[in-house]
């Protein structure tokens, strides 16, 4: 089924009328691709999909999950994590507190990656970590900290590159996986250790209306592989909000294929995916 702008508008307005979800300023191209996949996966026409969403709140939530869940993994894009490890996070060693916000954290692997890295750097205890997402189902997965093993074998490769590799050396640092998570090959699970599960505060939060609820101020905000799904207007609304949420010299990290353009880019010094508030 080829979806038109009118179809997408009908979907967005129907969902907005039924719930707190507002996709008005999402990228048309992104929404078209995701809704088309939902229709194909459920073998439904748009009209039938909307009728089911009206009648069945649980089905509606499942559709929102399918549309909003983003690909995430442990230490995704290891080069970004290596920059954080060696160039960014060490600057906070003498700070009394380190506040970190993972905006659009999805199922939470990024949050657990950060906590593992913080522990390796001796910053775990002083850190306050918030993970937010619009997707309630994804947040429940994040809180549990249990993921599929075979589906995510590259987790271990990423872990090795960020945690075990020593720059300029062929030797690997001895950091057993069991320090941070347990692997059960029979049950096909990777389960994060309880000390990690208990640390972050996971909250429902809508980046479309970022001031509600208020989140606070942070030293470091990670919003990776999220803004590519927003139109230009919403991106800049969000950049303004992030700017106001950052302490002086605070840091905003975007995804590998994302960049800040528009009026708020002048307020940041950019180094790769790292944006430092001037």
The description of the largest β-sheet is: 7 strands, mixed
CA(first)-CA(last) distance: 48 Å
CATH hierarchy class name of the largest domain? Alpha Beta
What structural category do the secondary elements indicate?
A: alpha/beta
So how many helices? 10
Characterize the structure shown.
- This protein is an alpha/beta fold.
- The chain has 2 domains: 5-68, no CATH class; 78-146 and 193-277, Vaccinia Virus protein VP39 (Rossmann fold, 3-Layer(aba) Sandwich).
- It is built from 10 helices and 10 strands.
In short:
The chain is of the alpha/beta class.
List the helices and strands and how they pair.
Layout: H1 5-18, H2 28-42, H3 46-55, H4 57-68, H5 78-88, E1 98-103, H6 109-120, E2 127-133, H7 136-144, E3 146-148, H8 154-164, E4 181-184, E5 189-192, H9 194-197, E6 201-204, E7 218-223, H10 232-245, E8 246-254, E9 268-271, E10 274-277
Parallel strand pairs: 1-2, 1-7, 2-6, 7-8
Antiparallel strand pairs: 3-5, 4-5, 8-10, 9-10
